[in-house]
Amino acid sequence: MIKISEIFGPTIQGEGALVGQPTIFVRTGGCDYRCSWCDTLHAVDSEYRDTWKPKSANDIMTEIKKLSDNRPLLISLSGGNPAIQPLDELIDLGHAEGYSFAMETQGSIAKDWFSKLDHLVLSPKPPSSGEDTDWEALDKCIKAAGENAEISLKIVIRDEKDYMYARNVAQKHPDLPMYLQPCNTTPPINEDDTVDFEDINTRTQWIIERAAQDYWFDVKILPQIHVMIWGNKRGV
Ligand code: SF4
After folding, report:
1. Considering only CA atoms, which residue is closest to atom 8 of ligand 1?
2. Region 219-228 average pLDDT
3. Which of 189, 193, 220, 226 has its CA 20 to 30 A from that of 234?
4. Phi-psi region of 4 (alpha: psi -120 to 50; beta: other; left: phi over 0)
5. Where do the domains of the chain lie?
6. Does pTM surpass 0.90?
7. For 64-91, what is each residue's pLDDT tens digit?
């Protein structure tokens, strides 16, 4: 069984390499990290554990097909850390119906079934998260995805230390496309909590200027589009 925090869509992917793409989100419950600015605490904190429902791959697929009117589109496996969950059967079932799969994980846990994904978004967490990166585990995730999945890196940037961390990751993995994303410093505790859009805009401008200063041009810089459109609202 797979612990599910929420399934929603169709909406658009709001960040990273697949931004703008029509997507159904499958958010699993549970995470091995506790990032200081986590924006999905409802899928992380044990306080919400009772809301995570165990579901079979078949039941999840039925829900996805209903939401998408049986039209195969992109399914984004998110969390929490979806790598904790047994998702290989769901990927097989979805592929058999023509759906494609992207997964976002911090890269702390590698699973053989990553090779079944169409897209793997690795989002190692920078110093401002308060978490340490297990570089060996990150490498294992890249190896596990192999040649089949399109792999990209996405790093949240709050400050100069985070920026330098991203530079370091880019140097370690020059072949992988990298996306930088300004930190939402007012992540939701409740979905009614307001977003500091001015802060996000200022931080985005700073990252763009900072990368230009370094002549770092093989990187893409994008705010979270869903946050700019819907703020902290859930399920969109
Ligand atoms: S890894 Fe992601 S889901 Fe887990 S605590 Fe950090 S930001 Fe939240």
Report:
1. 38
2. 91
3. 220
4. beta
5. 2-230
6. yes
7. 999 999 999 999 999 999 999 999 999 9
Out of 5, 38, 84, 108, give the residue to mutate to test ligand 1, the one with the largest number of ligand atoms within 8 Å of its CB: 38
Q: Provide the CATH topology of domain 2-230.
A: TIM Barrel (3.20.20)
Return the SS3 of 99.
coil
- At residue 63, φ and ψ (nearest 5 deg) are -65, -40
Confidence label for 137 from pLDDT (cuts 50, 70 and 90)? very high
Pick the residue whose CA is nearest to atom 6 on ligand 1: 35
Q: Is residue 70 within 8 Å of 94, Cβ to Cβ?
A: no
Closest ligand 1 atom, residue 129 Cα: 6
CA of 140 to the centre of ligand 1 (A): 19
Cβ atoms of 183 and 162 closer than 8 Å = yes
